[in-house]
From TrEMBL:
Ranges for domain NACHT: 385-524
All copies of domain NWD1/2-like winged helix-turn-helix, residue ranges: 603-715
Membrane-traversing stretches: none
Name this protein carries in UniProt: NACHT and WD repeat domain-containing protein 2
Organism the protein comes from: Sinanodonta woodiana (Chinese pond mussel)
Lineage: Eukaryota, Metazoa, Spiralia, Lophotrochozoa, Mollusca
Keywords linked to the UniProt accession: Repeat, WD repeat
Domain NWD2 C-terminal beta-propeller stretches: 1200-1369
Gene3D superfamilies the record matches: 1.25.40.370, P-loop containing nucleotide triphosphate hydrolases (3.40.50.300), YVTN repeat-like/Quinoprotein amine dehydrogenase (2.130.10.10)
Amino acid sequence: MVMSEAQYQSVMRGCLDNLPTLNSRLVRIFISSTFTDTREERDMLLENVYPKLKTYCKEKHGLDFQVVDMRWGVPADATNYHQATILCREEIYNCQRLSTGPNFVTFLNQKHGYKPLQTTIHVAEFDTLLSSLRESQREVTQLLTWFKRDDNIVPPMYVLQPISSVIPGYKEMGNEEAQQHWETNYNELRNSLKFASQKCFDKGLITEDVMHKYFMSVTEDEIFHGILNFPGDPTEHCLCFVRIIEDLEQNLHHQKAWRFIDMVQQNKVDEESQQILSSLRDEKIIRKLEDFNITKTQVKWSNKDGINREDHKTYLESFAATFYDCVVNLIDKAVQREHRQNQDEVYIEVLQHATMAVDRCAMFHGREDILDSVEKYLTSDVSEPLVLIGQSGCGKTSLVSQVAKQIPLIYHRNAVVVLRLLGTSPDSSNLWKLLRSLSEQISICYSKDRKLIPVDLEGLKSYFLQLLECATASNPLVILLDSLDQLSTEHKAHRLNWLPHKLPKHVHMILSTYTEARDIITMLKLVFLSQSFITVPVFSAQLSIDILKSWLKMKNRTLTSEQFSIVEDIFKQCSLPLFVKLIFDQVLAWKSYTPLSECRLTSTVQKSIEELLSQLEKKHGQVLVSRAMAYVTASRIGISEVELEDLLSLDDVVLNAVFEIHIPPFRRIPPILWVRIRHDISQYLVDKEVNEVRTFFWYHQQFFEASETRYMKNADFSKEIHSLMTDYYLGIWHGVKKPFTYSPLQVMRLGLKEAKSEADRKVAAQPIIFQQGTGKIPTRYNKRKLNRLPYHLYMAGRRTELYCKCLFNFSWLKTKLEATSVSTVLLDYIRYEENTSPVHKALKAAQSTLKRFPQTLAAEISGRLLAVQSGMKSLVEMEFLQDSLSASARTTHLVPYQPCYIIPSDALTCSIEHPSIPINSMQVIISDGSNSLVTLTVHNEVITWDLTSGEMEKTTKLSTPNGERMNVMYKGIGSETVIVGTTYQKQGNPVFIMDLRSGNIESSLVMEKNYPAVGFIDDLKLDITSKLILITVLGQAADVYDRFTGKLLQEFKVITDQVKVLGNGEMVLYHTRQSNIYSIYSLEYFVLLEQISTDQTPKALFTGESSPMGCVLITGCPAAHIIDLDPKSSKFGQTVSKIDIPKESEFQLAGMYGDKCLLILADKIFLWDLKMNKQTMVFTVPQSVKPDRKVLNFEGILTPDLQYLVAIYEEHILIWSVVTGKLLQTLQPMKTLLERIMLSPDGQFIICMFTKNNSIMIWNLSNVVKEADAYRPLSVDGSASYMSVALSGKAALACSSLGNEFITIDVPSGKGRCIVARTYSVMEPIVTADGNYAVLRNCDKENCIKMWNMESGEMESEIPISGLQVKQYVLSFDGKKVLIVVENDITRMVTLNIFTIPSGDFMREIHVGRFHITEVFFADRDKYIVLSTGEDDVDVSVKIYKAQSDSLAYDLPDMHPKATQPVVQGEKLIISVQKSSRHEKDVGEQKWKLIVFDVVEGKITFTSNVIPDGKLKFGNIGRYGIDRYRCVYDLKKGEKSHHFDSEEVYQKEASGRLTAPKVSADERFAIWVHPEGQLLKLGSIETGQIVGVCPLHSIPMNLSITPQNIILIGCEDGRIMLVQLVDESEQNLRNTVMGILNRSKVQVQKIKRYLSWNDKNEKKDDQRKIKQVSDETENTIMACTVL
């Protein structure tokens, strides 16, 4: 049924009245038929059609397919209790409730079928029937024996007794006498009731409908409920198949005729049944269904069993095809009809919780006092959430549900009610999914665009809080979140920093949690006031009995007084609502005639659950129940009925128990068996959607715990269950016959010749992807397999398969990343104890990039694992690396050519990379709880990060009145409050105050005074106390403001260069600039408390939160004064001691830690004991880390426990033991300078920032102490600021930003050759075309041009030219000459001096004149020299000289001063820009033209009015060039063909010279870098599309590409990356991958896939083992050579 907009809005707004049926991802069809006459049809469906429908539903629509066929596998126990009819009706209702499309199919042929006895008869009706029998002088004793009056039913009824209660031997296996006894009794009872009902009807004592139920068959009853009485449109959900055997009546003599028609005796048809059947089949059904719902077929009788596969092959195949088509047709129509419901996941989520809430409300009773308190809260102006706390099982969920139902009545009829019973669905179990779901519902209700909802968690947190502002007086918002404890701990959800601390107007929030969740309650009480909490008590004994009576009344039941007494006694021992519910469900089964000795109750929840499970086992079989419950419990988060049915069908222990005395037509579990079990425990199971599948699980944690203890405690049994589930999710047995062995008892009883057999269990397929996405159709992933397979492999102890199938399988990893998230993928490695593996380290280091660009997974993995390839011993690891390389080539055309990324050590907790974090960020704060790190970005955002994982927790946008950029952030002393300000104060002085725990803005103020003359960030100091804000501008002002209003309270008349807030914010200390005076003022009265004077000029004062002392360093000497800053001390403000260490340099920094003082010099640190007033330890920087230059940064911190000293020294982290003074660890995080180091307050984490990188690294201190440095790829010290690559592509030279390190690189091998220079700083080097030599310039006044051998690293020669005269130098195309542009510093005359390489011999000079040379290069294979000349960029011309004769060949006038270049290096064509008119002097865009000049022909060969922006970079063809804005120009057509990445935001739109975009040698691809995103991008010049992205994880400093398409990138962190560009050829791809592996010096063998996803032979444990590389092969593995 199509849902109206009003119905949709009603559900989304939280109305719990008249809810539509909860949509399911399930096609569930009840098959109604008589049993004996449809055996062949049902077998055909089971064997051929149902598997096809399963596949179709899953792949086409993502639906599960399930058939409920109650006609086979019916156990004797079901017959014993007369449950068949009741169970059938329940399953018909379930199919109608759950199924998408078809839900009922009947096969209605020529047999009316079995007619059951009525299980209950109203007392009045029964008495009427008895009277009729007595009047007819019929025996009634038998009826009174089998039917007993039950007064516990209201009104009372007569209940049909279990067969075994009258015939004790009935349940005994093989007791034919008892069976026959029941058959006789059944017939007599039925005849009596038929006779009596007919008599009563004839007399008008009962209606025809009442009479007919005594004549009705099971099939007719099913059709009545499935079609005739169906509340909806049966034509959309029902099918009827009619098969008529034309000559059946001519074959009544056949011994099998009874199977196909009702017979009263041999050869005689039961006319009564045929008449009822005819009316049903030919009249009633036709009136309800259309022709397309009914299929009629006529067949002939066969002497071989009437209907069989051979004689009726055509009919059966046609039937199967018709059945398939009809069912598919109904499914497709339903999916199309219910498209909105199916596609709108938030609607499904909301309806699911609403449906569960309605169920809880149905059982709600009492709690009036709490409901009154909730009503008062809702109708008040309280701006905090209301929190309900109670012990597990106390009824919080029912209470929250009842509140949700009553909100329109007790608060506001138009209120939007957002309800989540947390943990009952996947979208309410995970914080990211929860916030997404809440935001979507609120957006719908308040007409906000759902597309605006952020994808990332931090964005979600902020956006969710923004959405709360949508609430209005006419449409208030109430959010109810039940069971916060059921949220998973992922994303640090239990910290609750995603909850609003202050609610906007018209918004209320009700939360609940159980008392055992101490961490959550602690967090709640830290944030909210005590009056915001309500304790939910357990029921009193009297209330419990009142509630039980109320529930019994709802079920039309009661108890006897004696039974009530038993219940009252038990409630005195326990009265938890959950316990009351358990007792209620037990007493429902009590009859008024049940002996009191059988009315037993347990006294605790746990014992009651155990008793329930025990009774289930007795009733349904211990084997079946224990293993079914084990599968449910082992699923951990829920299992679908299809999955459970398949698993039980694969479990031969279960099947041997079920089929103990007969062989079924198919070896599958009969559906009725689970249906019966679920019927008995349905109230303790909850349906929910997990991984896009409808599942069920225990509705309460205590049921899960009891079941786990009972069924999964045995380790071997647990592994067996998980192993069977593993095989199922692997899909091993789909379409494959599974072997099994009959038990000895079965062999004997069934007379089998062979115990071993095999059978196809018809289980569902388990591909990793159900449907590959195309166009607008999204990819449909098998999320059940992706999420559950690793878990079950782990729990089954199948570690090898866990590795090769999941954790080290690239296809799996890629698919799971696409289907879920990088956080989910990482969680697998933690859960399954692989968090120390290189793969986990690689993923962890790459997570920031993978969140934005999941397609870079292959490059991230292979670019790191290549470094550890030498340690790989198994083929699984080798294959994983090879697959990663291949995938990188296929998906991005880019492959790491060598190990190009850092593999972090275990000590690295995480690395935070975010383009909005400023480089050299000082705006970083750590929370007092050591769990969060806060950064201030360039985009006015405060980002909160999880300190332990690096995950972004929250982003808070700071909106300023005039768009000021906020750039200063400080944390208040001893508080979790952050204050944010700005130095941009020309129009105002905005300030934000934030709560660190929640990330919420507490207030935003515009201060009464602003400071427009603030110079630098360091000049503005902010601080905050409980009442005040202190703003100090060094050298200008020292002011105090009201924290809540921004009003100026005090202006201290002091010109200060240092400020410190002391104590608990009670005092402030200022140092008067250029003086020896420190002044301490009261912040309560703003009066001077103390002045401190030093006898020498102070450098700075240092304090510490853990110390009452201050340390004043003295300028120019190793001396310090220790000052008492404790206001309670008698020596307050006095110098209590002096430190003087002779013969040392000046103290640079100091730190105060209790009674310890840390004094930092240039290369050592002193630890001073203040009590003993003496030095206790000296920590000296090791010589190995000292640079050959001035040290720029050295600082240290003591850990809170005073066990370690952590220091940064340039780019190194140094850690000493404070106890022993021993240097424990030297760590180099990056080859770039460290700017700042911090310790978390608990001392667990080291946080470091860098001078030229926007990364923040977080290290685990204890692991750093234990572990050596991480692997680093090819690198230079400092940043790789410049790189020169030989034209041949054979070699390259990388230069460090420090100026004193050059590394030569052998490009084909991807390795460093040697260090070229270390003793002096040089400028840009150039490598010869052949890669043998490098020419470079240093800063010497003489001999500034030097030539170096690239192979040996030795200098070949020096050219005696002054560095002041050299303006430019270039190399010839052949690499044998260097041309140096020399300008005489007196005459200003310019000459071109040419020298030989490598000897440095002078060849000749060319006199140019007094010109400014802007460009110079060789052309036409060194035959010409091209100069761009001019005087101050005016009257610029291009002069072309013949290289051999030094004569001027051509002079091109009116040229652009900086636009001349070769089209292809060393060739004859040059490109430049010339004025369009010789007479125009103004430079304008329309006055210029692009020209191509042939230096050999001496003419312009091409002109165009399309002018590129700057120079173009060409390949080796000369047609396509790219400019610095990523625009591609086609010289052949004279037009701009593409603009790559035009919509992407680049902070600097144009690239710099060194990072300018490039074109591949064949000019098929363009490459460029995104500095802020730290990415290398690849574009197709043919299509203009971006075809590849490769992460850099650092700011790119330069970019080059060789003729062999090897891309070289120099990074700010010192790394030199080599990336191979690969074309589409599969052979080229394979060669590239194998070449990369070989270059890593690893013996590569052909990898055989021992374990393939489609390997059907993978059946036994020995087939799951992975072969290892042999010892002989292992010995051939050589380690990677790392420079």
